[in-house]
Write a structure and sequence with these properties.
The protein has 414 residues and is α/β, with parallel strands linked by helices. It is built from seven helices and 26 strands. α1 runs parallel beside α6, α3 packs parallel to α6 and α4 packs across α5 (268-275).
Length: 414
């Protein structure tokens, strides 16, 4: 579709087509390494893990109570059993449970071999060494079976999962202290532009502080990535080309911000064509149209726009899926659902637009979204105050209050 707000003579590449080109062009990095379990959070599993043990390893109690054999029950009548001892978590009952006996047992403690049931402690009455069971006592309850969670030899976690905190707990429960993971993705990022001032320096007239590197540093904060900030490069074509080529020899991915538009000092596309290859430049997204994707040697290159909101949007929608694919992690579609928009939204057809919104939910569970305010691609304050994107498709010509719209909640990294 032609962007109604630009002078484009040809249709812009759609977001889906851009993602399709990236998917075709990108292959996961080679190489694996061993990681101690304590260092494996967020890493991509390179080899499936199989359990060396049954989980649970023993039959054990699901609650605090009394373990007994169902053969001692009295056909729907109340009954009494003699207390033979205690089974503690980590210290099993050592004797043999005889007919007419039961043992005090705690959650997680081994159930004696002769017992098959556990009753909750609140349901019985204890008088010295005698335990009185009610008539409604149920047999074969509250006992966790051997291998009920995972059987020995079963797959605990299949590659190529990105390991979560729960995954680490599951692996630890099987006694596994080391896993094989994909090597870290090596990423370099830097900003371009004569107008940029690094933090800690006084701001001169005509200059702005470089917010993009701080944002990218946060967005790239992932255990599967090894990230280097290469600073700010001025608008010098030769210097930029030299830095691009130098970085391409050491990293899997280069991400730049600024210099990808059509101004006289915007050299990214020209340099990429000179020393590498351009897969695409400009896509039907707002904010963030002047996005370049290509390759220098074996290094993938993303040239993001300079405006900070456009950086965040294009990173999340275009770059992040590519990095997941490169790192070997499975693809993840963003969570999206519909909500009632309480604000009128302006939009021209031609590009898929990501407006910032404030999401809420009423007492009936219905979702509502309102505009977070000014939507300029330079206005970070509305991004900071909002909690979701309002995703407006290419053909949309605006939204009236009360219309249903698609929303995409922000990740926790924004």
């Amino acid at each position: 579709m032609i962007d109604a707000c630009s002078q484009e003579s040809r249709p812009l590449l759609s977001i889906d087509d851009a993602l399709g080109r990236i998917k075709t062009a990108v292959n996961p990095v080679n190489g694996t390494e061993k990681a101690a379990l304590k260092n494996a959070l967020g890493r991509v599993l390179a080899e499936s893990v199989y359990s060396p043990v049954n989980i649970p390893h023993d039959r054990n109690a699901a609650m605090d109570g009394y373990a007994f054999a169902s053969r001692d029950m009295a056909d729907g009548q109340a009954f009494t059993l003699a207390l033979a001892g205690t089974s503690w978590a980590g210290r099993p009952f050592q004797g043999q449970l005889q007919a007419g006996q039961c043992v005090r047992i705690f959650t997680g403690a081994v159930v004696p071999e002769q017992a098959d049931s556990v009753i909750m402690q609140e349901h019985v009455q204890v008088q010295e060494q005698t335990v009185h069971f009610p008539a409604d006592t149920r047999a074969l309850q509250n006992v966790r079976k051997i291998g009920e969670d995972v059987k020995q030899g079963e797959c605990l976690i299949a590659q190529p999962k990105k390991l979560t905190a729960v995954d680490l707990g599951l692996l630890a429960s099987a006694g596994i202290d080391e896993v094989t993971v994909k090597r870290q993705l090596k990423i370099a990022h830097f900003s371009t532009g004569d107008e940029l001032t690094s933090l800690g320096r006084p701001l001169e007239s005509g200059k702005i502080y470089d917010s993009n590197r701080a944002m990218l540093g946060g967005l790239l904060s992932d255990p599967g990535y090894s990230v280097v900030d290469l600073g700010v490069i001025p608008d010098n074509k030769q210097l930029l080309e030299d830095r691009f080529i130098e970085a391409s020899l050491s990293y899997d991915v280069i991400i730049t911000t600024g210099g990808a538009s059509v101004g006289e000092a915007d050299y990214v596309k020209e340099i990429l064509q000179s020393c590498g290859e351009v897969n695409f430049w400009k896509i039907a997204i707002k904010p963030g149209k002047p996005l370049a994707f290509g390759k220098i040697g074996q290094c993938h290159f993303f040239g993001l726009p300079g405006n900070p909101v456009a950086v965040v949007v294009t990173f999340q929608q275009i770059v992040a899926p590519a990095l997941r694919q490169l790192s070997g992690a499975p693809s993840v579609k963003p969570l999206r659902f519909t909500a009632t928009c309480t604000s009128a939204l302006k939009k021209s057809p031609g590009r898929q637009e990501y407006q910032r919104g404030i999401l809420s939910q009423d007492e009936n569970g219905e979702f509502f979204v309102a505009s977070a305010g000014q939507q300029g691609s330079h206005i970070l304050s509305s991004m900071s105050q909002s909690g979701c994107y309002i995703v407006l498709p290419e053909g949309c010509k605006g939204v009236q209050a009360g219309d249903r719209v698609t929303v995409e909640p922000f990740s926790l990294l924004i």
